[in-house]
Amino acid sequence: xxxxxxxxxxxxxxxxxxxxxxxxxxxxxxxxxxxxxxxxxxxxxxxxxxxxxxxxxxxxxxxxxxxxxxxxxxxxxxxxxxxxxxxxxxxxxxxxxxxxxxxxxxxxxxxxxxxxxxxxxxxxxxxxxxxxxxxxxxxxxxxxxxxxxxxxxxxxxxxxxxxxxxxxxxxxxxxxxxxxxxxxxxxxxxxxxxxxxxxxxxxxxxxxxxxxxxxxxxxxxxxxxxxx
Amino acid sequence: xxxxxxxxxxxxxxxxxxxxxxxxxxxxxxxxxxxxxxxxxxxxxxxxxxxxxxxxxxxxxxxxxxxxxxxxxxxxxxxxxxxxxxxxxxxxxxxxxxxxxxxxxxxxxxxxxxxxxxxxxxxxxxxxxxxxxxxxxxxxxxxxxxxxxxxxxxxxxxxxxxxxxxxxxxxxxxxxxxxxxxxxxxxxxxxxxxxxxxxxxxxxxxxxxxxxxxxxxxxxxxxxxxxx
DNA sequence: GTTGGCATACCGACCGGTATGTCAGAAACC
DNA sequence: GGTTTCTGACATACCGGTCGGTATGCCAAC
Lengths: 228, 228
Known about the structure:
Chain A is an all-alpha fold and about 230 residues long. Helices cover about 75% and strands about 0% of the residues of chain A. Chain A has helices at about 15-25, 25-45, 55-60, 65-70, 75-105, 110-125, 135-140, 145-175, 185-205, 210-225. The first copy, chain A, is elongated. The relative contact order of chain A is 0.11. Chains A and B meet through helix 2, helix 7, helix 8, helix 9 and helix 10 of A and helix 1, helix 6, helix 7, helix 8 and helix 9 of B. Chain A binds a DNA duplex (30 and 30 nucleotides) through helix 2 and helix 4.
């Protein structure tokens, strides 16, 4: 999934972050921080976070080591900030999309189909097709990091499950499904399909695969409920 | 995807009764080589290949650095051997399963459903649930390796696509589908679902998710063709 | 309105640890 | 005695992280 641009939000685990939000330091500071995060995000997706060297990231960001360690206590803290930022973006995207879907229709089945459609639109509106999920990138290196990162990723995925499965259950109650199904499983299929599509699209060098799979998932929902 | 057990992966023991394919220099030699490959495979899945240190692998394998560099020219060659071995296993699994499915039924739709079922059986027969796909692990680090590795992974995935899409097309011709569909896309959904399920199952710490998604994929096929 | 104090932001040489890779040769087996 | 297999000290390079120092802006005191 792609990170929605979070804008200038400085975040650290310490209470100093509060000062960032309220006092608005020199603008240059958060700029540097954001630049580092953005470049590090790309490097983590293409090389894996562990293998991405600070020097490589900082060179590309045009930032020195001193500047980096002024903003981050360690490389581990960078990982934390990276995942946190990404998770926040994903959750925000979910909220936005479900809110719009709920405005556009009262029917839970239509809402699910709208969520898929709006997500599809979102992909179109991004300039380039997204090239991976940061969670997946970390998940194949998890032994190197704390369980906290995994937790953040899990919470994000569970939020999508919750949103979709609730509507699917309501849809089944209202319309009756063609065959019985487990709402959680069908909801999880969304995340599963996305994560898998990133991997397969990259391996086959076929960026269009992502949208194809997304639409096939929509087909699945429609077939489950006998909608055209 | 899961590595098909390649058979004689004698790990620690000195089981020399097993006959290796063709080339076999000295038994002890291939034993060491296979041990290294097996351990490296596990490390690559849990830490990412780039971040997995030779020392860690070799310590666990009970092998010295000299022994390693006797068998592999470099760490890069280890990556190559690892991916090649994995790809070979996957292709072999595909062949076995399709051959069995084709024996069990002449109907292409039934064959597809059988392939899914046999794959499910295969998962059951593995002792532990598989914990990832080596291709996926490498795919999020691809900038570090040659395009050759990606190619090998791609060929494997395309083989699965080819096998499934051919049968799906034949099934559509014979039975007519409930709604039109692209056989390649539906075939790719198998790989996509698997790859995604690995990522999500690991992130949510929910190994059962893999089988759930597999069965949901089977549901999709059945719904496409109006069976049951 | 100049001065001095202080905080933020940043610089970059340097350090210790660890990674991959080398090599001369020993051990085992034909 | 030649080949295969393995040993382990060593070379070298790079990585994360440290640290003393600089630049700039703000503010209060004089």
